[in-house]
What does this fold into?
Amino acid sequence: MIKVLFITAHPLEESTSYSLTVGNAFIEAYKEANPEDEIVNIDLYNEYIPHIDAHVFSGWGKLRSGTEFAQLSSDEQAKVKRLAELSNQFIEADKYVFVTPFWNFSYPPVMKAYIDAVSVAGKSFRYSEQGQPIGLLTDKKAIHIQARGGFYSDSPADELEMGHRHLQVIMKFFGVPSFEGLFVEGHNKAKDKAQEIKENAIERAKDLARTF
It folds into this structure.
């Protein structure tokens, strides 16, 4: 069975979020086209996503030196265990659907925390004997659905967009061979066309979902 992670990063409801509206349209169309596939919803604003902090580094260090997991502090245990759960879930999936708004030229910090959680040497990538990174997720597929209030697809504004570009770099780093973007943009800049922009994006999402 194909497993799809539907990863959303927006604190508001679908009614006020272009990214969630289009993302949900995508996943519903995907379900219709692939009824046997398993969809796992990961709402990053309602999940425990530990930051890589001092507890995590100390816990990992102790484990590498041979300390038993049970001997770690409670904070170390909780964070190290949760990070392992997240990374295992990620590498066991077959497809990823990332849904984010465009905030401060990137995406919400919870998405960065999640990417940090699944970027694990030996799981999503490894280093060669020469120190070169080698992606290990070469049989995966991913799409990023991003809502942008302005227009950032064309030069010179495209240089300011760092959320999709970061995910693109990460997916390449992981070895994911298929990664595409669906952008809902300009609804704040061209308010008189906001509804049209949303509807067009929904239709594009449905089309892409059928072949994802």
